[in-house]
Design brief:
- The structure is a single chain.
- By secondary structure, this protein is of the alpha/beta class.
- It is 61% helix and 8% strand.
- The strands form six sheets. A six-stranded mixed beta sheet has the order 6-9-10-4-11-12, sandwiched between helices.
- The protein is elongated, with a radius of gyration of 41 Å.
- It starts with 10 loop residues before the first helix and ends with a helix.
- The N terminus is likely disordered.
Length: 1504
């Protein structure tokens, strides 16, 4: 059954004749024409397909339940292409079966040959493979919504078409050569080509879309696949969660995101959600359960427990990365093992036919396995890292919510933020290094085996040298650990100080202390920089030891060979050199691994010790079921103490009972324990003895308002559903309606951090509204009326406590005596005891302490009575008053009108707190230039580069020398003596080692200097920024730069730049080396490099934006955390912990999304680069085996191959370093952003400094003062002209928002006027330096501020006064005895924010500061708001006594505070309404008289 005879040749055969003869002339290629090869190759390919389909099927089974929703089946009309494809696959399978059976029976009668057996094997495997493909298409793809066939199928069809065409061409060639051919073979190949063509068309040009659209889907078909892949928020879940095996292997699932990033700037909405296993929501519960199970009953978390729980939460990734690491290591040693064989082959010693192709195949398969394993190892490691970091941050956050006050005092918010930003991140990063220790053993073991095979006993010398090098690292490693620990401790201290300074920046500016505090911060940084310097120089030394290590090991090995008489042949030497190059990796990575283990251990210890801190004791309160008792709160024999080690409890012998619906007032002098009593009811104060029972839900309003960043509405709802009617009622009761009308965005106005764009009164009222909206059973108010004016205070008391909360249980602390008669029970406190309890009149008659308080109030009111206000009282309830109250009653916040960033001529400018600015597009070259030239003007950079080039030249030179000078085998005469050979090698090696020493030392110096300069620059600019910058910038953003970004610049940026330079120079060296051997490599090298650069450019736009998103979405995590820590009491009192935990998890996932996809994008790129460099390497190998023996020196050719083995790693390392530098430079960019903040005016103007004695009289003249907060905003003060006489007291009053605080801010030049001027003693304040002005004025601010430190450092931060002067000031402000009773006297500690001092005591400390300073001009900004009337009287008395000849300007809500002023200024809507002496204004029945009347009426009424 033969086809055609030899006579039938046409033109076609002439062409084939020429082609085949030229083809066959190549030696060693004739096997490519043999049918046995074609059928064998085809069968092998089909076997691979079968294996891939099997793995894919197992994968799908394994992945089931990983978040895939129900798949949408196509309607009744299925895709036409799909049906045809299925039929065609079935056809090919059937045809293969038919031909297999036909051939079997046809050949059964004849003798079997090798060719026939292989052909049958091919047909049988084809039948199975195409059958499996049909099943795959039917089960996996018939019900999918994809419009294209998977990449796996398209690649397969391409390969199938190619092999079919090849078979057909060979059929023609064979026919031409042998003149006969089995007809069934030709028919089969023709059918295969036609079917292959159809598959190519369908796979690459056809769409698998049916005519049925979404409109034709059944309505009752659930969500459909369109939504199965979407998260609740509508953002799709990452394609990784349901990608196919081919897509997973090649990272193709990242393609759509990278393509999108190429078209537009990526935003968080474009980045897919993490799938459940990687998100915190999915992974944290497992981690928590495991940790709890590990810790057992005592709940103490040790580092070991923590590590076990972390491994458990990512055990799959840990296992898989281990597996990948093993295969990677094995594959990477195939090359060095085969090098000697390859050199011998090139020399002409061939063991079998086609050995060259077998060697090339072995090299290439090993390369492919190595690339795949490395990429997936790194990706899985980072995936585990992202997850570990997220669960740790969540654990730290949850701990922060439940910390007891005792524990909290030991760890400030700055430190806890460091646990999150630095320690958790470091533990996450450790996933890169987790297999390091055992891999080093495996790599060294394999290296020694290969060396033993090649060099015999000299391998023992290698082992000894390797051990010596590794041991040299032990002292360096322990030093690094020590320095790292100290560095972290000093960083904690600095971050703690930074956080506190940013919180209190306004006070620092008002007092002209900011530069002093900056120098304190610089001192802390100096200590930190000391440890940083030691750390980087130790690292530099480590770097030198280990870059010199491979050279040292190779010298020792070759010397041992010489001494042992082992002949040095070029093949064996090249094999050894290639092994040393791979051995470099474990030796290089050892210092990194050891240092990383040390750093991670430090971080894990810190986190574990934090997680082991005591929580709030759960047994303080005995909660009764809601509605089960008439008693709301009952305390029996209660003793409570903030400090359990203290001999005297904070609260002693508490016994009282509160029935449901009662109103309880708590009063007492400053520091008597009023706020502690409320904290104790909330369960915040540790219990020593007694019982505390509570029945019902609670709501709490703290003394200093805690407001979250977010809208006003979110603050009021505080996690509750919106009930419009109740919401409106609450707004009305809290007098918030008018405020919201004035605000441009109403209740959607975004409040800045800690409510910076609201006045004190507005913050307090929002806080009250939050409590009212909760609809709790028990309400606890900690003096909320002190921050609002008299009118608003009465309104709040009447509408809230007596109105909306009329039927609720209310406990309120107050200093205003006028609110006491309305209480059902009054508790009078003194020294932590309840000294008196009862109704107002009962205890007024019987008690002494209460009498004192009320007496002080009566004394303050006596002034009003002397001014005969009876007629005014009548007027106060008349119609005019009603109108007055309604028109100017409330409340524009003009104190900080920054929130309005609003519209002029209808140009909406948006909210005060904008989204964080991030640069777009490529990081400018100017950023790189600034970074490189910051230290010494960039003078060290050329030296570092020169040393790098020299190092590379010497490295390649030494290896080239060894390859050239050693013989190929024993029977060849060596070119030089062995001693000369080794002398030259050692000289070159030592030279290269010294280059490394230079590089590492110069680099450490330049990096350290740059980090120090950038720190100083940024901090100086931040401290010199105007107040408006701090109002509009959440401190989280500044802290993020000061911690995370500074950390990058301190520790990793110099290394990244060095890696980039090193990898680029090394890559150029290898290219030069390979082209020296075979310049033809350039034919493929140039296009490959072009594709690599194009790929890198294609990738970088997405990667850059993803890296920026990581930076931007880290700040909200820190911000939310800082807010939670400061408001934890409020959060707990509303039982909102779980909501806050959920928010933290959402924010963590928002940060994790770009983080995860950054890692995947990097691997997407690296995989493609690896494949391209493998092609180059493969081409080089094929070229080398194709040229005849003797044309090229086998030793040098072998050297080219040893370098080529590293090509893909180096190329990937170069691109990886390039991308890493681009990503890390963003930290530098973010620091530089803050070095261009507009600055305040000069602190000191040398040419115009006032006299030391200025101001002598303290006369303040204001001329036509107009103030606005920003150029596009309305005027707040609209042309004020007045004069405050020197040495007299002026009171400034006005409703909330009339411009009182703005006037004071202008006086201190926190805001500069738009026009007009202020003169003090004839000097225009805008003509002198800010420090000269602010240091000569004094202020007692509205929010009393104390800094962490000592009593002395709080009173005298500039260290200008003696101890005697400080004691004198303390005695004057009535704190002397209090401080003397403390152990450390003036050095007794003050906690963060002065938490261990009561509000009133903090206010007295502020008074002490003023008494020390003795300025001629003193401003009191609602300074006595948070003290009781007695203390207020005391402060007023002190001021009268010690500031008789000073100008005192008082802003007050308490009318009594301004009644003894010489003059009163009444502001309304930024204009002066009245300005005269109090007596005159009271007589004239003025607006001031009405304010006084309201106050008196409130004080005289009992609100009952």
């Amino acid at each position: 059954m033969e086809l055609f005879d030899s006579s039938n040749h046409g033109n076609l055969s002439a062409f084939f004749s020429h082609y085949s003869s030229s083809f066959i002339t190549y030696p060693g290629t004739d096997f490519l024409l043999k049918p046995v090869f074609i059928r064998g190759f085809s069968g092998s390919l089909h076997l691979v397909l079968l294996f891939v389909l099997l793995v894919s099927w197992v994968w799908k089974k394994f992945k089931v339940g990983d978040g895939e929703g129900p798949k949408q089946r196509f309607g009744s009309i299925q895709s036409w292409y799909y049906k045809l494809t299925l039929l065609c696959c079935l056809g090919v399978s059937g045809l293969s079966l038919v031909f297999c059976l036909f051939n079997y029976f046809y050949w059964h009668r004849n003798d079997w040959s090798e060719e026939k057996l292989v052909t049958l094997f091919d047909l049988a495997i084809r039948t199975l493979a195409w059958g499996a493909l049909c099943v795959y298409l039917h089960t996996q793809f018939s019900n999918s919504c994809e419009s294209k066939f998977p990449n796996l199928l398209r690649v397969w069809w391409g390969s199938y078409f190619s092999i079919s065409c090849y078979s057909l061409v060979i059929d023609f060639l064979l026919y031409k050569e042998h003149a006969s051919l089995p007809i069934q073979s030709l028919v089969f190949d023709v059918v295969c080509v036609i079917s292959g063509f159809f598959f190519i068309y369908v796979g690459f040009f056809g769409k698998k879309e049916g005519r049925n659209t979404v409109l034709q889907e059944p309505l009752l078909n659930g969500n459909g696949n369109a939504e199965s892949n979407n998260s609740k928020g509508g953002t799709p879940v990452t394609p990784y969660s349901n990608a196919g095996i081919f897509s997973i292997l090649t990272f193709s699932w990242m393609g759509p995101l990278i393509a999108l990033g190429n078209k537009k700037t990526l935003d968080l909405e474009d980045v897919p959600e993490l799938y459940k296993g990687d998100s915190v929501v999915g992974s944290f519960p497992n981690f928590r359960n495991k940790l709890e199970a590990e810790c057992g009953a005592d709940g103490r978390v040790t580092t070991f427990h923590l590590v076990k729980a972390l491994i458990f939460s990512a055990w799959k990734e840990v296992g898989l990365t281990g597996l990948y690491a093993i295969f990677y290591t094995l594959a990477s040693y195939v090359g060095p093992y085969l090098i000697d064989t390859f050199v011998q082959y090139l020399y002409g010693r061939r063991k079998f036919k086609n050995e060259g192709y077998a060697l090339v195949s072995a090299f290439m398969v090993a390369k492919l396995v190595e690339c795949l394993c490395e990429r997936h190892w790194y990706f899985k490691a980072q995936q585990a890292g992202v997850r570990i970091q997220a669960v740790l941050v969540t654990a730290i956050y949850n701990k922060g919510l439940t910390l007891s006050c005792q524990s909290k005092q030991g760890h400030t918010s700055g430190e806890i933020i460091n646990f999150m930003t630095v320690d958790a991140e470091r533990v996450g990063d450790f996933s890169w290094y987790m297999h390091g220790p055992w891999m080093i053993i495996l790599q060294v073991g394999l290296a020694l085996v290969i060396l033993y095979i090649n060099l015999g006993l000299a391998a023992i010398a290698t082992l000894v040298a390797t051990i010596i090098v590794m041991l040299a690292n032990v002292p360096l490693g322990s030093l690094q650990e020590k320095f790292q620990e100290k560095l972290m401790e000093s960083k904690d201290k600095r971050m703690k100080a930074t956080s506190e300074i940013l919180r209190n920046m306004k006070i620092l500016k008002l007092q002209a202390w900011e530069m002093k505090f900056l120098s304190k911060l610089n001192e802390l940084r100096k200590t930190e920089a000391g440890w940083l310097r030691k750390f980087v120089y130790t690292s530099a030394l480590t770097l030198f030891v280990f870059w010199g290590a491979p050279t040292f090991v190779s010298v020792v090995t070759f010397v041992a060979c010489m001494l042992l008489g082992i002949p040095l042949e070029s093949g064996k030497i090249l094999s050894a050199l290639a092994t040393f190059r791979i051995l470099q990796e474990p030796i290089y990575s050892l210092p990194d691994t050891i240092s990383m283990i040390a750093q991670t251990k430090v971080s894990l210890d810190r986190i574990a010790s934090f997680l082991s801190l005591d929580d709030l004791p759960p047994d303080v309160i005995e909660n009764l079921p809601r509605g089960s008792s008439d008693t709301a709160i009952e305390i029996v024999d209660g003793n409570f103490s903030w400090d359990l080690s203290s001999p005297s409890p904070t609260l002693k012998d508490l016994n009282f009972k509160v029935s449901q619906g009662m109103r309880i007032a708590v009063c007492g002098t400053v520091g008597s324990g009023k706020s502690s009593l409320l904290s104790c009811i909330l369960g915040e104060v540790p219990k020593i003895s007694g019982t505390l029972k509570m029945c019902g839900t609670k709501a709490y309003v703290s003394q200093s308002p805690w407001i979250q960043s977010g809208t006003i509405e979110e603050n009021i709802l505080f996690g509750q559903e919106m009930d419009r009617e109740r919401y409106e009622r609450v707004l009305e009761a809290c007098s918030l309606k008018k405020d919201l009308e004035i605000l441009l965005f109403g209740d959607q106005t975004i409040i800045g951090e800690r409510g910076i764009n609201l006045s004190g009164g507005q913050k307090q009222r929002i806080q009250i509204a939050r409590a009212l909206y909760q609809d709790a059973d028990i309400y606890l108010f900690d003096d909320p009326f002190s921050a609002v004016d008299a009118h608003t205070g009465s309104h709040l008391f009447k509408e809230c406590l007596l109105g909306l909360l009329g039927s609720k249980t209310v406990i309120y602390v107050t200093h205003q005596v006028e609110f006491l008669p309305a209480a059902d029970l009054i508790l009078v406190m003194k020294d932590g005891r309840i000294t008196e309890a009862g109704k107002f009149n009962d205890i007024l008659n019987s008690g002494t302490d209460f009498k004192e308080l009320v007496g002080a109030h009566a004394e303050a009111l006596s002034m009003l009575n002397s001014a005969e206000v009876e007629p005014v009282v009548k007027l106060s309830v008349s119609k005019e008053d009603g109108e007055f109250a309604s028109t100017s009653g409330v409340v524009q916040n003009v104190e900080d009108t920054d929130f309005q960033k609003s519209k002029t001529d209808d140009l909406p400018k948006g909210q005060l707190v904008q989204e964080e600015e991030r640069e777009k597009g490529r990081v400018g070259l100017s950023v790189y230039w600034k970074y490189i030239t910051t230290a010494y003007g960039g003078a060290l950079v050329p030296f570092i580069l020169l040393a790098q080039v020299l190092f590379q030249v010497l490295q390649i030179g030494s290896n080239y020398w060894m390859a050239w000078a050693t013989p190929v085998s024993e029977d060849v005469k060596p070119a030089v003596e062995t001693s000369t050979l080794l002398t030259v090698y050692v000289a070159l090696a030592v030279g290269s080692s010294f280059c490394i020493l230079f590089i590492s030392m110069f680099l450490a110096t330049a990096g350290y200097k740059t980090a120090t300069l950038l720190f100083s620059k940024m901090h100086l600019c931040v401290f010199r920024a105007p107040m408006s910058f701090f109002d509009a910038t959440p401190s989280g953003r500044i802290l993020n730069r000061a911690s995370t970004d500074q950390n990058v610049v301190d520790l990793s940026m110099p290394d990244q730049i060095e890696h980039l330079a090193n990898s680029m120079i090394q890559l150029l060296g290898i290219i030069a080396m390979m082209s020296q051997v075979a310049w033809q490599v350039f034919i493929i090298f140039i296009p490959v490099i072009a594709i690599c650069i194009w790929l890198q450019q294609y990738y970088i736009s997405s990667a850059r934006e993803l890296a920026r998103l990581v930076g931007v979405y880290k700040a909200p995590v820190i911000q939310h955390f800082a807010e939670t820590i400061s408001g934890s009491t409020t959060i707990r009192s509303f039982d909102q912990e779980s909501r806050f935990r959920d928010t933290n998890m959402k924010l963590m996932d928002g940060y994790g999304r770009p983080n995860f996809h950054t890692a995947a994008a990097m691997e997407w790129l690296c995989f493609r680069l690896d494949m391209l460099s493998s092609i180059t390497f493969g081409f080089c190998l094929v070229f080398l085996i194709s040229i005849p023996a003797g044309v090229i020196d086998p030793g040098v050719a072998g050297l080219a191959v040893t370098y080529g083995l590293n090509l893909n790693m180096l190329q990937a390392w170069f691109i990886w370093s390039l991308c890493n530098v681009e990503n890390r430079i963003i930290s530098v960019e973010r620091l530089l952003q803050y070095t261009t903040i507009p600055s305040e005016p000069q602190l000191v103007i040398e040419s115009n400094q006032p006299d030391r004695s200025w101001p002598l009289h303290g006369k303040v003249d204001i001329h036509d003062l107009q103030v606005r907060y920003a150029p596009h905003m309305p005027l707040v003060l609209r042309g004020i002209t007045c004069s405050f006489p020197g040495g007299m007291k002026t009171g400034i009053v006005g409703r909330t928002g009339s411009g009182k605080s703005t006037l004071i801010q202008t006086l201190f030049r926190i805001v500069d006027p738009a026009s007009g001027q202020i003169l003090i003693d004839g000097i225009d304040i805008s003509s002198i330096g800010l420090h000269d002005l602010r240091s000569r004025l004094s202020i007692i601010p509205q929010d009393p501020t104390m800094f962490e430190g000592t009593v002395r450092s709080n009173l005298d931060p500039l260290e200008e006064y003696t101890d005697e002067q400080i004691w004198e000031a303390l005695d004057k402000c009535q704190l002397g005895d209090e401080v003397r009773s403390k152990e450390g006297k003036l050095d007794s500690t003050v906690c963060e924010n002065g938490e261990n001092w009561s509000m009133g005591q903090r206010q007295l400390v502020c008074l002490g500061r003023v008494l020390l300073k003795k300025s001629k001009v003193l401003v009191l900004d609602e300074a006595t708001a948070s003290v009781d009337t007695a203390t207020d009287n005391l402060i007023q008395q002190t001021l009268r006594q010690h500031f008789t000849d000073c100008t005192v300007i008082t802003i007050a809500h308490r009318i009594t505070s301004v009644l003894d002023s010489d003059m009163v200024l009444l502001l309304s809507h930024g204009l002066i309404e009245e300005y005269d002496s109090p007596a005159t204004l009271l007589e004239n029945k003025s607006s001031f008289a009405q304010l006084v009347a309201e106050y008196t009426m409130r004080s005289n009424s009992s609100f009952e």
